Here is the input.
Amino acid sequence: MSDDTKQAYAVSLGCPRNRVDTEKMLSALDSLGFESTLVPEDADLILVNTCAFLGSAVKESIETILELAENKKHKCKALVVTGCFPARYKNELLKRELPEVDLFLDPSQEDMLAELVRLKSRELSPKRDVSRKTGRMLTTPAGSAYLRVSDGCNRQCSFCIIPKLRGMQKSRPIEEILLEAKDLVSKGVVEINLVAQDLSAYGRDLQGGRTCLADLLVELDKVKGLEWIRCMYLYPSGIDDQLIDVISKMSRIAPYLDVPIQHVSSTVLKAMKRGYGYNRVESLIKKLRHRLPRFNLRTTVMVGHPGETGKDFEELLSFIQRVRFEHLGAFRFSPEQEASAFFLEGRPTAGESYNRWRRIMAVQRKIARSKQRSYIGREVDVLITGQADESTMLNTGRHSGQAPDVDGRVYVRLWEESPNQLEVGRIYRVKIEKAMDYDLLGVALEGR
Ligand code: SF4
Here is the structure.
């Protein structure tokens, strides 16, 4: 690397959708001549792509910005903050409160990053120029990538400020997504994880009110080289029979659906403005279990929403015990001033919320443990994602029923006679030998 090479360091906070934006911005910076570095002290430019969905995320964003701002005393010439934090708070306020930051960009301005960086600082002047919107610099382990199909959301869930931060849904045309999927495959990607704020509503803004996730999946299923296509964030009432039919016939679908139900009590769901009630959730889950029996179901639930009584909570807990989701994330309601639930009466106390959350997590841990045990002795395909921190003899990976970042993992040891290490980004046949609460341990039999 020559001495005048500029270096950029990026941090991506929050959800996978943010990570896709970070990857695009890294690619734009690359086209300006910036090398990517993992060491903030070496960076000429530091990018913090923030999350501000909840108060706790805002706090993390501010702490990260202030910590990285220390580098401005040394080599760093520009600190750029993007994402939901500048979208949530007014630019002027941020400039006043965080003078360390050179540039704030909300999500609608992120495409302009390269151009603004170029204009903003002579010291950071590019060696190459940006003439068009660039691609992505993948930051996920080899073999796996997120693919964002739309941004924004048209729903009005009481607890959520995402529509205020990211605007109305904007879907990308199918052709553009297919091109990106093919490009990812050409870079060695075998697993794509489809993300959106509301994946089941994909295309509604493109086709005069008709969603077209099913059409997109049919086309993606034809992309040679893809092994696992995974659907994240399917809104419960957006899953119809046509979508289930298509999924059941796909050859490259990962046997996994992420369906955030949030609650089952009709009273709480009404207060949450989710647009469905208990019967709809129950019949959907029954249908998914019946039509897609091999599938792992993931869900997210929220406790402590205003109006949630002890009885509502028990209804949710007993539903979770009956359905036995393979993966479940539980969250406590967080009052955000811009969300309509902030003004609702009947908020359970912090102690009640915490106890409810704890009880759900304890129940789910038992369910997860027994689900993991059922894998012992079975052979599964595992995508190798890296080396385990615990031992150089162990790799980490995921089977097709585990999503990146949110679910458990499979630790994989080499088979005795193997002369080689396992290759990151490749799928191996693995025999499962041991099960922990959320993770598995197995031996690699051979590469596929
Ligand atoms: S579906 Fe609801 S929770 Fe999800 S992003 Fe849209 S408004 Fe927020």
